[in-house]
Amino acid sequence: MNAHNPAASRTLSLRPHPEAEVPETAMVMAAGLGKRMRPLTATRPKPLVEVAGKPLIDHVFDRLRAAGVKRAVVNVHYLADAMEAHLRNRVKDIEIVISDERRQLMETGGGLVQARELIGDKPFLCVNSDNLWVDGPVDAIRQLAALWDDARMDVLQLVVPLARANNHGGKGDWRIDAHGRVTEHRKPGRLAPFVNTGVQILSPRVIEAWPEGPFSTMLFWQRAIAAGRMWGVVHQGLWFDVGTPMAIGATEASLSEM
User: Fold this and answer.
1) Sign of CA dihedral 172, 177, 180, 184
2) Of 68, 112, 193, 216, which is most buried by a Cβ count within 10 Å?
3) pLDDT digits (tens, 9 = 90+) for 60-81
4) Is the separation of the CB atoms in 199 and 141 below 8 Å?
5) Residue 161: cis peptide before it, omega within 30 degrees of 0
6) What is this structure's pTM?
């Protein structure tokens, strides 16, 4: 990734440079309980629920592989043995490192804290395992990498307009200015125009001064917003929130029409 990329300040949808360096390491969030996906998660962790013929986490690794990611830190908690066995059997070309949360589920922020030594000291990709996206004209991960500017960013998040957030029942997450800087989180009772896709590049700088025990990544995001160091880039393809059994059928129907 370029240490300084002035283009990052100009647009949310700039085509990336074809030689942009993608982070070598990804953090894959796979430790959740999957309560909204019950009863499908009674016997398997949510990332192993199948959508369009393959487990959700396999879709994630397809995207990581296509972008050239070499290493993935995966946190595990619920039915962790099944998750680890799946990764051993199915992922051969990306190095897998397990961040073990069997003793206590740390939530997203706590998960980053627990994995921080495994992640290393370079900007890294962070991806949720319960969403599915299809690239548009450009590879979304490479687009993030091309727009990353370490001098001005601590967070660069792939976002999607609320109107294009398939299966998403929320009211949006962020307000973003014309240059791509995230200016605020959605206020209670109001809508926000952009939704967090669960795909982002983070600087290890954000993982600091954390509370004890489990907590949300929102703490780190809010600090980055306050410092003017959180940015967003609009996804140009399709994105699906696959959080419930009903969302699986809707997602598969949309994909079958492509």
Assistant:
1) negative
2) 112
3) 999 999 999 999 999 999 999 9
4) yes
5) no
6) 0.90
